[in-house]
Amino acid sequence: MVTGPSFEEMLHPQTIDPKVRADALAALESDPLNPLNLYNITWRDPQNQVYHIVLPRELTGVDANIVLIYGMHFPSGSHKVGAAYSVLLEKQLLGEVDPNAHTLVWPSTGNYGIGGAFIGCRMEYDSIVVLPEEMSQERFDRITRYGARIIRTAGSESNVKEIYDEVKRLRESDPKIRVLNQFEVMGNYRFHYHVTGNTLVELAAELRDEGIGAGMISAYVSAMGSAGTIAAGDRLKQVWPDHKIVGLEPIQCPTLYNNGYGAHEIQGIGDKHVTWIHNVFNMDALMAIDDMDALNGLRILAEESGRQVLRERFGLAEDMARQLSQALGISGICNIIGAIKTAKFYNLGRQDVVVTVATDAMERYGSVMKQLRHQHGPLDEARATAIIDGVFHRAGTDWVMEGNREARERWHNLKYYTWVEQQGKTVSELDAQRDPAWWIDHQERVAEIDNRLLAQRRQ
Fold first, then answer.
1. What pLDDT, on a 0 to 100 scale, did the predictor assign at position 215?
2. What angle do CA 21, 190, 261 make, to 5 degrees?
3. What pLDDT does residue 264 have?
């Protein structure tokens, strides 16, 4: 069976066999569909430096150091490929899936499905991606290019119930179906806890050596889609107990904030339920972001007229404007807005580091930007200035809920309606998540999975 790196090799790619690492790096550009690209699942570049940007204060308007790690250089163009690989690798090592016997189903609202198409087909599985029909065309194009089949369900980003209904139908109709549900399977959690989390611990020390921050991360900010990415905060809080984990969701679909619902345009987050793998008892604050702020913020970087205003009126360096225009998608802008709000809410200063994430990049949203231009007209200097000032510099501390005991209990209780009533979990399984030991046990299984993989290589 086709496999790739261990958790430790994804964290430290320099530990991969040098020839395999060199061949994988060569394949990233010359042969992007080669299974060797599994060994490019890492946050580190060929020189083993973390892909990150220290955002300029000309953009953020705050003294705290806001650091963005970005996923555009993962083999599928998004770090979600790491979660997809970890989920499938674990299932394969445990004997739960076999490429000669099973068809994989990847429920998704976009990037996980793209990652699943890439991973599943590279590991020689027949793969089906189920996602809402209103997602960006670029998502569908990638999935097709990677070799997976697509089933489109009704609605947009927040219509996960419709995805679950279709997945249930598929499972009941074909005994070969195996569902790799990112919202439920702990391999997603483990990838971000171990690989993303420890990458950030190491990045904090590297930033300190560059004169940025004091060697720690004060806050980690992440929107919740599957709630995989935010799991990195669990590792950070173990290293720095005073560390703050801040979750984000759309104002238009404030599920955790006030049991709200609705459609929104921040693709990749706000899926109208609390996922099984989300450790809500570790979340220190919840913030809601307006989807039009995220869309308009991305438009500033997507269009030359917006970048020109950033350069000429706000003093942003040209190379920085260009880099940001390539590295960010809609949810990345949402995360930056949330990081600015976090810095203001906690009164963070020049010695503080706030880390956030760009899950994917601009190349996934050309059709969305085109639609915005059609709907709202050209982006002139006045409008661009108002957006930059209003979305970034004047981001406030409204729509903030602190994670006190009552809030965390409420967030946890919301899991009941999806996971017990609809997805077959038991109340005792749900109650078990209240115990920190439940989460620690899942964290410690990283070593078990790595040992199984290494044993298979020796056969």
1. 98
2. 125
3. 86
- Give the CATH fold of the 43-76+186-405 domain: Rossmann fold (3.40.50)
Q: Could you say which residues of the chain have pLDDT below 50?
A: none
Structure tokens of 260?
């709200």
- Cβ atoms of 183 and 107 within 8 Å: the answer is yes
Distances (CA, A) of 7 to 148, 199, 238, 321, 447: 25, 12, 19, 34, 8
Non-local (6+) Cβ contacts of 284 within 8 A are 244, 245, 246, 402, 403
- The domain limits of the chain are 43-76+186-405
pLDDT score of 269: 81
**Residue 280: which residues within 8 A CB-CB, separation 6 or more?**
256, 274, 403, 408, 411, 412
Tokens of 158: 């927040």
Which position has the token pair 């973390």?
A: 50
What distance in Å separates the CA atoms of residue 65 and residue 351, rounded to the nearest whole number? 7
113 to each of 89, 107, 434, how far by Cα in Å?
Answer: 16, 7, 30
| pLDDT tens, position by position, 28-74 | 999 999 999 999 999 999 999 999 999 999 999 999 999 999 999 99
pLDDT value, residue 268? 80
Whether the Cβ atoms of residue 358 and residue 335 lie closer than 8 Å to each other: yes
